[in-house]
Amino acid sequence: MAVQKLYESQSKLFQPIKVGNMQLQHRMVHAPATRLRCLDNGLVMTDLVKEYYKQRSSIPGTLLITESLFSGAKSGGFSNIPCLYNDEHVEAWKPIVQAIHDNDCFVFIQFWNLPGELKVDYLEDQERLEKVTQGECPMDPTGLPAALGSAYSICGEELYVDKFMTKQDIQEHITTYTEAAKRAVFGCGADGVEVHQVNGFLLDKFVLNGYGDKCDPEYCGSLENRARFCLELLESVVNAIGQERVGYRISPFSDIWKDKDSFEAHVFMIKKIKERFPNLAYLHAIEPRQYWNGHVHITQEKNTLIYKNLWGDPFITAGGHDRDSAIQMAEQENTLVAFGRYFLSNPDLPFRLKYNLPLNKWDRATFYTKMSPKGYIDYPFSKEFLDTKKVE
Q1: Which domain of life is it from?
Q2: Which pTM was predicted?
Q3: Assigned superfamily of 7-113+169-391
């Protein structure tokens, strides 16, 4: 059955664009989304996760940004979060990346660092307790009790352990992050990596003064000092894999640290990054109408365009977009739109949006269902998409 093209299919949203070294066939991006389909030791469930990304790379020329991976043993603490700091992790991700490439699509692997808290049940067994007592726990600039409380939990698992972050700790993080980026690109075969300065996590916490002056003097106090960690990390990663293989994500409207200078901080960061790394693959910014910590934040008078204008091209916007807002945003020069919930519930999302087809509704109860295929690989493709595959 032929699918009738609609007027909207001529929107820039559905037109090709070059991002970094990649020639994409449209401007709809799979947004990074934590899903907990991973073993407790950080080893991804390859067959399950491969099927998920294989489904969502069903439209050739799509860019997929993965869920966040921990770059090192001291980066995290959540159970069921994937990691990429040893050969076993690399071997588990290789088939996933290959499945995406087999569908003529592209993949950037995102890395993150917790802002210092560990989940409560991290201390439930002796092996993990030894890791904590030996210093193998997430780093935080403060050494103070967790500032976020219940604001940082997944499936009710709360985090709490903090450790003061020395200059040596910071350099160690930069090294492990860089090694993980090299594993992603040269080991797993990914097209690039995304650096995560988002929603109050470690890099964001530095930039937004989430710790006051309780840190090494070189990395706290003035905005220039607070930005140093991120810029040094970016420089190290770029030197290792190339600017065109690196994207950068920010959440300029997040109020986790309630920094009164948040706007100035993000403007400073964007200008510095653009000045030092003009060929970075993209800037990825979250809109103020994001869904975060159980609440929908809608601020009509604010959007990410001011940051897009500072940055230039290419630019990815994410957070609460539907088809209409995506089409509108894509009219901006060299702008892409990332989808999270709609992409997880619609494996053929770019096809559905292009032809204005009904969308599957997501099941929020399965977002963080550990190691389960339910609500992960069982969302149906549209009949119209399946019909086109029959014709082929």
Answers
A1: Eukaryota
A2: 0.87
A3: Aldolase class I (3.20.20.70)
